[in-house]
Amino acid sequence: YGLSSEHPAPRFFRDCTEPKKSYDAVIIGGGGHGLAAAYYLAKDYGITNVAVLEKGYIGGGNTGRNTTIVRSNYLTPEGVNFYDASVKIYEDLSEELDLNLFYSTRGHFTLAHTESAMRTMRWRAEVNKHVGVESYVVGPEEISKACPQLDISCSGQAPILGALYHAPGSVARHDAVAWGYAKEADRMGVEIFQMTEVTGIDTKGGKVVGVNTSKGYISTNRVLSAVAGFTPRITEMVDLQTPIVIHPLQACVSEPMKPWLDTILVSGSLHVYVSQSSRGELVMGSSLDPYEFHSTRSSLDFVEGLTTHITDMFPFLSNVKVVRQWGGMADITPDFAPIMGKTPLEGFYLDAGWGTWGFKATPISGKTMAETIAKDMAPDLIKSFRLSRFEDYELTGEKGAASVGH
Ligand code: FAD
Ligand code: PYC
Description:
Layout: E1 25-28, H1 32-45, E2 50-53, H2 77-91, H3 93-97, E3 104-105, E4 108-112, H4 115-131, E5 135-138, H5 140-146, E6 162-166, E7 170-171, H6 174-187, E8 191-193, E9 198-204, E10 207-213, E11 216-219, E12 223-225, H7 231-237, E13 245-254, E14 264-267, E15 272-276, E16 282-286, H8 300-313, E17 322-332, E18 339-342, E19 348-352, H9 362-375, H10 389-392
The chain binds flavin-adenine dinucleotide and pyrrole-2-carboxylate.
Protein backbone atom coordinates (compact mmCIF):
# COMPACT_ATOMS: atom_id res chain seq x y z
CA TYR A 1 0.00 0.00 0.00
CA GLY A 2 1.26 3.41 -0.96
CA LEU A 3 0.68 6.63 0.89
CA SER A 4 -0.60 8.69 -2.04
CA SER A 5 -4.10 10.17 -2.01
CA GLU A 6 -5.08 7.56 -4.61
CA HIS A 7 -3.89 4.70 -2.39
CA PRO A 8 -4.17 5.86 1.21
CA ALA A 9 -2.59 3.53 3.76
CA PRO A 10 -5.30 1.60 5.56
CA ARG A 11 -5.19 1.66 9.31
CA PHE A 12 -5.48 -2.10 9.67
CA PHE A 13 -7.22 -3.50 6.59
CA ARG A 14 -8.94 -2.27 3.43
CA ASP A 15 -12.52 -1.13 3.57
CA CYS A 16 -13.98 -3.70 1.13
CA THR A 17 -17.57 -2.90 0.19
CA GLU A 18 -18.54 -4.74 -3.03
CA PRO A 19 -17.89 -8.49 -2.99
CA LYS A 20 -16.77 -10.16 -6.23
CA LYS A 21 -19.08 -12.64 -7.99
CA SER A 22 -17.03 -15.62 -6.85
CA TYR A 23 -14.31 -16.70 -4.40
CA ASP A 24 -12.28 -19.88 -3.81
CA ALA A 25 -13.57 -19.86 -0.23
CA VAL A 26 -16.05 -17.84 1.81
CA ILE A 27 -15.73 -17.54 5.57
CA ILE A 28 -18.85 -16.62 7.52
CA GLY A 29 -17.92 -14.70 10.67
CA GLY A 30 -15.25 -12.09 11.25
CA GLY A 31 -14.41 -13.14 14.78
CA GLY A 32 -10.94 -14.37 15.75
CA HIS A 33 -11.63 -17.86 14.40
CA GLY A 34 -12.86 -16.82 10.93
CA LEU A 35 -10.06 -14.26 10.53
CA ALA A 36 -7.39 -16.70 11.73
CA ALA A 37 -8.65 -19.32 9.25
CA ALA A 38 -8.42 -16.71 6.46
CA TYR A 39 -4.88 -15.78 7.54
CA TYR A 40 -3.63 -19.39 7.57
CA LEU A 41 -5.39 -20.22 4.27
CA ALA A 42 -3.37 -17.41 2.71
CA LYS A 43 -0.12 -17.94 4.60
CA ASP A 44 0.11 -21.74 4.74
CA TYR A 45 -1.66 -22.67 1.48
CA GLY A 46 -1.43 -19.60 -0.77
CA ILE A 47 -5.25 -19.51 -0.99
CA THR A 48 -5.93 -15.76 -1.07
CA ASN A 49 -9.07 -15.47 -3.19
CA VAL A 50 -11.08 -15.58 0.04
CA ALA A 51 -13.89 -13.41 1.41
CA VAL A 52 -14.60 -13.04 5.13
CA LEU A 53 -18.21 -11.92 5.61
CA GLU A 54 -19.08 -10.28 8.92
CA LYS A 55 -22.59 -9.11 9.68
CA GLY A 56 -21.44 -6.54 12.23
CA TYR A 57 -17.88 -5.36 12.83
CA ILE A 58 -14.87 -7.61 13.18
CA GLY A 59 -14.30 -8.87 16.71
CA GLY A 60 -17.76 -7.63 17.77
CA GLY A 61 -18.98 -11.13 18.66
CA ASN A 62 -17.62 -13.32 21.46
CA THR A 63 -14.04 -12.46 20.49
CA GLY A 64 -14.52 -8.91 21.78
CA ARG A 65 -16.63 -10.03 24.74
CA ASN A 66 -14.43 -12.67 26.29
CA THR A 67 -12.22 -12.47 29.35
CA THR A 68 -9.08 -13.50 27.41
CA ILE A 69 -7.85 -16.45 29.46
CA VAL A 70 -5.42 -18.62 27.51
CA ARG A 71 -4.40 -21.98 29.01
CA SER A 72 -4.00 -25.64 28.13
CA ASN A 73 -4.75 -27.35 31.48
CA TYR A 74 -7.54 -29.52 30.07
CA LEU A 75 -8.74 -32.96 31.10
CA THR A 76 -8.34 -35.20 28.04
CA PRO A 77 -4.97 -35.77 26.31
CA GLU A 78 -6.64 -34.70 23.02
CA GLY A 79 -7.78 -31.42 24.58
CA VAL A 80 -4.45 -30.72 26.29
CA ASN A 81 -2.48 -31.35 23.06
CA PHE A 82 -4.80 -29.13 21.03
CA TYR A 83 -4.84 -26.16 23.43
CA ASP A 84 -1.10 -26.50 24.07
CA ALA A 85 -0.49 -26.08 20.33
CA SER A 86 -2.56 -22.87 20.54
CA VAL A 87 -0.63 -21.52 23.55
CA LYS A 88 2.63 -22.11 21.67
CA ILE A 89 1.41 -20.08 18.67
CA TYR A 90 0.11 -17.31 20.98
CA GLU A 91 3.51 -16.94 22.64
CA ASP A 92 5.05 -15.58 19.38
CA LEU A 93 1.90 -14.18 17.79
CA SER A 94 2.56 -10.46 18.47
CA GLU A 95 5.75 -10.78 16.48
CA GLU A 96 4.15 -12.88 13.74
CA LEU A 97 1.26 -10.42 13.27
CA ASP A 98 3.45 -7.37 13.91
CA LEU A 99 0.97 -6.06 16.46
CA ASN A 100 1.19 -5.87 20.25
CA LEU A 101 -1.40 -8.33 21.57
CA PHE A 102 -0.44 -7.60 25.20
CA TYR A 103 0.07 -11.32 25.64
CA SER A 104 1.00 -11.67 29.29
CA THR A 105 1.86 -14.95 31.01
CA ARG A 106 0.53 -14.77 34.57
CA GLY A 107 0.17 -18.31 35.90
CA HIS A 108 -3.33 -19.71 36.37
CA PHE A 109 -4.76 -21.11 39.62
CA THR A 110 -7.94 -23.21 39.61
CA LEU A 111 -8.91 -23.09 43.27
CA ALA A 112 -10.37 -26.14 45.00
CA HIS A 113 -12.61 -25.68 48.03
CA THR A 114 -13.67 -29.33 48.44
CA GLU A 115 -12.02 -32.75 48.43
CA SER A 116 -13.87 -33.73 45.26
CA ALA A 117 -12.56 -30.61 43.49
CA MET A 118 -9.04 -31.51 44.68
CA ARG A 119 -9.47 -34.93 43.07
CA THR A 120 -10.26 -33.32 39.70
CA MET A 121 -7.21 -31.01 40.08
CA ARG A 122 -4.95 -34.03 40.69
CA TRP A 123 -6.46 -35.78 37.68
CA ARG A 124 -5.90 -32.77 35.41
CA ALA A 125 -2.37 -32.27 36.75
CA GLU A 126 -1.45 -35.88 35.91
CA VAL A 127 -2.93 -35.73 32.39
CA ASN A 128 -1.19 -32.38 31.77
CA LYS A 129 2.19 -33.66 33.00
CA HIS A 130 1.83 -36.79 30.91
CA VAL A 131 1.38 -34.66 27.78
CA GLY A 132 4.27 -32.34 28.78
CA VAL A 133 2.25 -29.34 30.00
CA GLU A 134 3.35 -27.55 33.19
CA SER A 135 0.53 -28.03 35.71
CA TYR A 136 0.68 -29.29 39.27
CA VAL A 137 -1.32 -29.28 42.48
CA VAL A 138 -0.33 -26.71 45.13
CA GLY A 139 -1.44 -26.10 48.72
CA PRO A 140 -2.81 -22.96 50.41
CA GLU A 141 0.69 -21.69 51.36
CA GLU A 142 1.84 -21.58 47.75
CA ILE A 143 -1.39 -19.86 46.70
CA SER A 144 -0.94 -17.23 49.43
CA LYS A 145 2.63 -16.65 48.31
CA ALA A 146 1.53 -15.99 44.73
CA CYS A 147 -1.48 -13.91 45.79
CA PRO A 148 -1.09 -12.56 49.37
CA GLN A 149 -4.26 -10.42 48.97
CA LEU A 150 -6.49 -13.52 48.72
CA ASP A 151 -8.44 -14.48 51.86
CA ILE A 152 -7.75 -18.23 51.90
CA SER A 153 -10.84 -18.82 54.08
CA CYS A 154 -12.98 -16.89 51.55
CA SER A 155 -14.55 -14.95 54.43
CA GLY A 156 -15.19 -18.29 56.13
CA GLN A 157 -17.63 -19.26 53.34
CA ALA A 158 -15.53 -21.84 51.48
CA PRO A 159 -11.93 -22.26 52.68
CA ILE A 160 -9.46 -23.05 49.88
CA LEU A 161 -7.85 -26.48 50.21
CA GLY A 162 -5.48 -26.22 47.25
CA ALA A 163 -5.35 -25.48 43.54
CA LEU A 164 -4.28 -26.68 40.15
CA TYR A 165 -1.41 -24.36 39.19
CA HIS A 166 -0.77 -23.95 35.46
CA ALA A 167 2.33 -21.88 34.73
CA PRO A 168 1.60 -21.00 31.04
CA GLY A 169 -1.83 -19.46 31.86
CA SER A 170 -2.03 -16.05 30.15
CA VAL A 171 -4.21 -13.12 29.20
CA ALA A 172 -4.14 -10.98 26.04
CA ARG A 173 -5.84 -8.03 24.37
CA HIS A 174 -8.78 -9.84 22.76
CA ASP A 175 -9.76 -7.47 19.95
CA ALA A 176 -6.12 -7.01 18.94
CA VAL A 177 -6.10 -10.72 18.10
CA ALA A 178 -8.95 -10.17 15.61
CA TRP A 179 -7.35 -6.96 14.27
CA GLY A 180 -3.95 -8.63 13.87
CA TYR A 181 -5.29 -11.59 11.93
CA ALA A 182 -7.46 -9.25 9.81
CA LYS A 183 -4.52 -6.96 9.05
CA GLU A 184 -2.23 -9.76 7.93
CA ALA A 185 -4.91 -11.70 6.00
CA ASP A 186 -5.82 -8.46 4.19
CA ARG A 187 -2.15 -7.80 3.37
CA MET A 188 -2.01 -11.19 1.61
CA GLY A 189 -5.13 -10.43 -0.46
CA VAL A 190 -8.05 -11.75 1.62
CA GLU A 191 -11.09 -9.44 1.37
CA ILE A 192 -12.94 -8.63 4.59
CA PHE A 193 -16.51 -7.32 4.37
CA GLN A 194 -18.06 -5.84 7.50
CA MET A 195 -21.80 -5.16 7.74
CA THR A 196 -22.32 -8.08 5.32
CA GLU A 197 -24.67 -10.82 6.50
CA VAL A 198 -24.96 -14.32 5.07
CA THR A 199 -28.67 -14.99 4.69
CA GLY A 200 -28.62 -18.35 2.92
CA ILE A 201 -26.37 -21.12 1.65
CA ASP A 202 -26.95 -22.45 -1.85
CA THR A 203 -26.39 -26.17 -2.48
CA LYS A 204 -26.68 -28.49 -5.47
CA GLY A 205 -26.43 -32.29 -5.38
CA GLY A 206 -25.12 -32.39 -1.81
CA LYS A 207 -22.46 -29.76 -2.47
CA VAL A 208 -22.10 -26.06 -1.59
CA VAL A 209 -22.27 -23.78 -4.63
CA GLY A 210 -22.70 -20.32 -3.16
CA VAL A 211 -24.00 -18.01 -0.46
CA ASN A 212 -26.72 -15.38 -0.40
CA THR A 213 -25.69 -12.24 1.40
CA SER A 214 -27.05 -8.81 2.20
CA LYS A 215 -24.73 -7.65 -0.61
CA GLY A 216 -25.89 -10.17 -3.21
CA TYR A 217 -25.06 -13.68 -4.33
CA ILE A 218 -21.50 -15.05 -4.22
CA SER A 219 -20.56 -18.35 -5.82
CA THR A 220 -18.05 -20.58 -4.08
CA ASN A 221 -17.66 -24.26 -3.40
CA ARG A 222 -16.02 -23.91 0.02
CA VAL A 223 -17.79 -22.27 2.96
CA LEU A 224 -16.55 -22.14 6.55
CA SER A 225 -19.04 -21.30 9.28
CA ALA A 226 -17.18 -19.67 12.22
CA VAL A 227 -20.04 -17.84 13.92
CA ALA A 228 -19.94 -19.15 17.54
CA GLY A 229 -23.27 -18.14 19.19
CA PHE A 230 -25.00 -17.83 15.80
CA THR A 231 -24.17 -21.38 14.68
CA PRO A 232 -27.75 -22.76 14.89
CA ARG A 233 -28.89 -20.05 12.44
CA ILE A 234 -26.26 -21.08 9.89
CA THR A 235 -26.61 -24.86 10.30
CA GLU A 236 -30.37 -24.42 9.90
CA MET A 237 -29.68 -22.99 6.41
CA VAL A 238 -28.22 -26.33 5.31
CA ASP A 239 -30.48 -28.62 7.39
CA LEU A 240 -27.57 -29.80 9.50
CA GLN A 241 -28.32 -30.99 13.03
CA THR A 242 -25.86 -30.34 15.85
CA PRO A 243 -26.34 -30.71 19.61
CA ILE A 244 -25.32 -27.06 20.21
CA VAL A 245 -27.43 -24.96 22.59
CA ILE A 246 -26.93 -21.24 23.23
CA HIS A 247 -26.57 -19.95 26.78
CA PRO A 248 -25.58 -16.41 27.79
CA LEU A 249 -22.22 -15.91 29.48
CA GLN A 250 -21.69 -12.61 31.24
CA ALA A 251 -18.63 -10.69 32.38
CA CYS A 252 -17.67 -7.28 33.76
CA VAL A 253 -14.72 -5.06 34.62
CA SER A 254 -13.95 -2.88 37.64
CA GLU A 255 -12.60 0.61 37.62
CA PRO A 256 -8.84 0.58 36.89
CA MET A 257 -6.40 0.13 39.75
CA LYS A 258 -2.63 0.08 40.08
CA PRO A 259 -1.38 -3.43 39.27
CA TRP A 260 -1.72 -5.72 42.30
CA LEU A 261 -3.09 -9.02 40.97
CA ASP A 262 -0.35 -10.86 39.14
CA THR A 263 -2.08 -14.22 38.68
CA ILE A 264 -5.29 -15.52 37.13
CA LEU A 265 -7.64 -17.01 39.73
CA VAL A 266 -10.62 -19.26 39.03
CA SER A 267 -12.95 -20.74 41.62
CA GLY A 268 -15.26 -23.40 40.23
CA SER A 269 -17.05 -23.68 43.60
CA LEU A 270 -17.72 -19.94 44.01
CA HIS A 271 -18.38 -19.73 40.24
CA VAL A 272 -16.13 -16.72 39.69
CA TYR A 273 -12.81 -15.89 38.10
CA VAL A 274 -10.62 -12.78 38.01
CA SER A 275 -7.49 -11.36 36.44
CA GLN A 276 -6.15 -7.82 36.08
CA SER A 277 -5.85 -6.43 32.58
CA SER A 278 -2.91 -4.46 31.24
CA ARG A 279 -4.91 -1.26 31.82
CA GLY A 280 -5.59 -2.07 35.45
CA GLU A 281 -9.22 -3.20 35.35
CA LEU A 282 -10.19 -6.37 37.16
CA VAL A 283 -11.70 -8.63 34.50
CA MET A 284 -14.30 -10.84 36.16
CA GLY A 285 -16.88 -13.40 35.19
CA SER A 286 -18.99 -16.21 36.52
CA SER A 287 -20.83 -19.29 35.31
CA LEU A 288 -23.16 -19.62 32.34
CA ASP A 289 -26.69 -18.36 32.75
CA PRO A 290 -28.72 -21.51 33.46
CA TYR A 291 -31.19 -21.06 30.58
CA GLU A 292 -31.03 -21.10 26.78
CA PHE A 293 -31.23 -17.56 25.47
CA HIS A 294 -30.09 -15.87 22.25
CA SER A 295 -29.18 -12.47 23.66
CA THR A 296 -26.16 -10.39 24.66
CA ARG A 297 -27.93 -8.49 27.43
CA SER A 298 -26.36 -8.43 30.90
CA SER A 299 -28.25 -8.54 34.20
CA LEU A 300 -28.21 -7.11 37.72
CA ASP A 301 -28.57 -10.65 39.06
CA PHE A 302 -25.24 -11.57 37.45
CA VAL A 303 -23.28 -8.66 38.84
CA GLU A 304 -24.77 -9.05 42.34
CA GLY A 305 -23.88 -12.76 42.50
CA LEU A 306 -20.42 -12.19 41.09
CA THR A 307 -19.43 -9.33 43.40
CA THR A 308 -20.69 -11.24 46.47
CA HIS A 309 -18.23 -14.05 45.76
CA ILE A 310 -15.37 -11.82 44.61
CA THR A 311 -15.60 -9.95 47.93
CA ASP A 312 -15.59 -13.30 49.78
CA MET A 313 -12.17 -13.83 48.17
CA PHE A 314 -10.98 -10.20 48.40
CA PRO A 315 -12.98 -8.37 51.14
CA PHE A 316 -10.95 -5.16 50.56
CA LEU A 317 -12.60 -4.77 47.11
CA SER A 318 -15.99 -3.95 48.62
CA ASN A 319 -15.76 -0.25 47.66
CA VAL A 320 -14.38 -0.80 44.17
CA LYS A 321 -16.82 0.00 41.38
CA VAL A 322 -17.93 -2.18 38.50
CA VAL A 323 -17.75 0.08 35.43
CA ARG A 324 -18.94 -2.14 32.55
CA GLN A 325 -20.82 -5.41 32.18
CA TRP A 326 -21.89 -7.31 29.09
CA GLY A 327 -23.00 -10.70 27.78
CA GLY A 328 -22.03 -13.06 24.98
CA MET A 329 -23.82 -16.00 23.37
CA ALA A 330 -21.97 -19.22 24.20
CA ASP A 331 -22.46 -22.19 21.82
CA ILE A 332 -22.38 -25.09 24.26
CA THR A 333 -21.85 -28.76 23.32
CA PRO A 334 -22.80 -31.74 25.51
CA ASP A 335 -19.15 -32.68 26.16
CA PHE A 336 -17.75 -29.11 26.41
CA ALA A 337 -15.42 -29.73 23.47
CA PRO A 338 -15.67 -27.91 20.11
CA ILE A 339 -17.08 -29.17 16.83
CA MET A 340 -14.53 -28.80 14.05
CA GLY A 341 -14.05 -30.18 10.58
CA LYS A 342 -15.96 -31.46 7.58
CA THR A 343 -19.71 -32.03 7.55
CA PRO A 344 -21.93 -34.37 5.51
CA LEU A 345 -22.47 -31.47 3.07
CA GLU A 346 -19.54 -31.34 0.66
CA GLY A 347 -17.70 -28.02 0.86
CA PHE A 348 -19.38 -26.94 4.13
CA TYR A 349 -16.94 -26.79 7.04
CA LEU A 350 -17.87 -26.15 10.65
CA ASP A 351 -15.90 -24.43 13.41
CA ALA A 352 -18.30 -24.19 16.34
CA GLY A 353 -19.14 -25.33 19.84
CA TRP A 354 -16.64 -22.88 21.34
CA GLY A 355 -18.89 -22.10 24.27
CA THR A 356 -16.93 -20.46 27.05
CA TRP A 357 -13.53 -21.76 25.93
CA GLY A 358 -12.74 -20.66 22.35
CA PHE A 359 -10.60 -17.52 22.64
CA LYS A 360 -7.56 -19.51 23.70
CA ALA A 361 -8.05 -21.76 20.65
CA THR A 362 -8.17 -18.93 18.08
CA PRO A 363 -4.71 -19.54 16.53
CA ILE A 364 -4.84 -23.32 16.40
CA SER A 365 -8.46 -23.43 15.26
CA GLY A 366 -7.56 -21.04 12.41
CA LYS A 367 -4.59 -23.15 11.44
CA THR A 368 -6.36 -26.51 11.57
CA MET A 369 -9.53 -25.26 9.85
CA ALA A 370 -7.37 -23.74 7.07
CA GLU A 371 -5.74 -27.15 6.63
CA THR A 372 -9.14 -28.87 6.60
CA ILE A 373 -10.42 -26.52 3.89
CA ALA A 374 -7.25 -26.60 1.80
CA LYS A 375 -6.94 -30.41 1.85
CA ASP A 376 -10.61 -31.27 2.34
CA MET A 377 -9.43 -33.44 5.22
CA ALA A 378 -9.21 -32.70 8.94
CA PRO A 379 -5.76 -33.04 10.54
CA ASP A 380 -5.30 -35.62 13.33
CA LEU A 381 -5.13 -32.84 15.97
CA ILE A 382 -8.87 -32.12 15.60
CA LYS A 383 -10.22 -35.58 14.79
CA SER A 384 -11.66 -36.03 18.28
CA PHE A 385 -13.70 -32.83 17.75
CA ARG A 386 -15.52 -34.13 14.65
CA LEU A 387 -19.29 -33.64 14.48
CA SER A 388 -19.92 -37.38 13.99
CA ARG A 389 -18.60 -38.14 17.51
CA PHE A 390 -22.08 -37.52 18.86
CA GLU A 391 -23.62 -40.31 16.78
CA ASP A 392 -20.62 -42.58 17.42
CA TYR A 393 -20.88 -42.01 21.22
CA GLU A 394 -17.20 -41.06 21.28
CA LEU A 395 -17.40 -37.87 23.31
CA THR A 396 -14.36 -35.80 24.31
CA GLY A 397 -15.38 -34.98 27.90
CA GLU A 398 -13.97 -31.60 28.93
CA LYS A 399 -16.65 -30.44 31.36
CA GLY A 400 -14.32 -30.80 34.35
CA ALA A 401 -11.84 -28.37 32.73
CA ALA A 402 -14.32 -25.79 31.48
CA SER A 403 -13.21 -23.24 34.08
CA VAL A 404 -16.50 -21.52 34.74
CA GLY A 405 -19.24 -23.55 36.43
CA HIS A 406 -22.08 -25.05 34.42
P1 FAD B 1 -17.16 -14.70 17.40
O1 FAD B 1 -16.08 -13.83 17.90
O2 FAD B 1 -18.47 -14.66 18.10
O3 FAD B 1 -17.35 -14.35 15.88
C1 FAD B 1 -18.43 -14.82 15.12
C2 FAD B 1 -18.87 -13.69 14.21
O4 FAD B 1 -19.82 -14.19 13.28
C3 FAD B 1 -19.56 -12.55 14.95
O5 FAD B 1 -18.78 -11.37 14.81
C4 FAD B 1 -20.92 -12.44 14.27
O6 FAD B 1 -21.36 -11.11 14.09
C5 FAD B 1 -20.66 -13.12 12.93
N1 FAD B 1 -21.85 -13.68 12.29
C6 FAD B 1 -22.83 -14.41 12.86
N2 FAD B 1 -23.77 -14.74 11.96
C7 FAD B 1 -23.37 -14.20 10.78
C8 FAD B 1 -23.93 -14.17 9.48
N3 FAD B 1 -25.09 -14.78 9.21
N4 FAD B 1 -23.27 -13.52 8.49
C9 FAD B 1 -22.09 -12.89 8.76
N5 FAD B 1 -21.53 -12.87 9.97
C10 FAD B 1 -22.15 -13.52 10.98
N6 FAD B 1 -12.79 -18.25 25.84
C11 FAD B 1 -11.53 -18.44 26.34
O7 FAD B 1 -10.75 -19.22 25.80
N7 FAD B 1 -11.11 -17.77 27.46
C12 FAD B 1 -11.93 -16.92 28.13
O8 FAD B 1 -11.51 -16.31 29.14
C13 FAD B 1 -13.25 -16.75 27.65
N8 FAD B 1 -14.10 -15.92 28.30
C14 FAD B 1 -15.34 -15.68 27.80
C15 FAD B 1 -16.16 -14.75 28.44
C16 FAD B 1 -17.40 -14.40 27.90
C17 FAD B 1 -18.26 -13.41 28.63
C18 FAD B 1 -17.82 -15.03 26.70
C19 FAD B 1 -19.16 -14.69 26.09
C20 FAD B 1 -17.03 -15.99 26.06
C21 FAD B 1 -15.77 -16.31 26.59
N9 FAD B 1 -14.91 -17.21 25.96
C22 FAD B 1 -13.65 -17.42 26.46
C23 FAD B 1 -15.32 -17.90 24.73
C24 FAD B 1 -14.80 -17.15 23.50
O9 FAD B 1 -15.15 -15.78 23.59
C25 FAD B 1 -15.40 -17.70 22.20
O10 FAD B 1 -15.38 -19.09 22.20
C26 FAD B 1 -14.60 -17.21 21.00
O11 FAD B 1 -14.41 -15.82 21.07
C27 FAD B 1 -15.31 -17.58 19.69
O12 FAD B 1 -14.68 -16.90 18.63
P2 FAD B 1 -15.31 -16.95 17.19
O13 FAD B 1 -14.42 -16.20 16.29
O14 FAD B 1 -15.62 -18.37 16.85
O15 FAD B 1 -16.73 -16.23 17.35
O1 PYC C 1 -11.78 -21.08 29.24
O2 PYC C 1 -10.43 -20.33 30.78
C1 PYC C 1 -11.49 -20.31 30.18
C2 PYC C 1 -12.52 -19.35 30.58
C3 PYC C 1 -12.49 -18.52 31.64
C4 PYC C 1 -13.64 -17.83 31.62
C5 PYC C 1 -14.38 -18.22 30.56
N1 PYC C 1 -13.66 -19.16 29.93
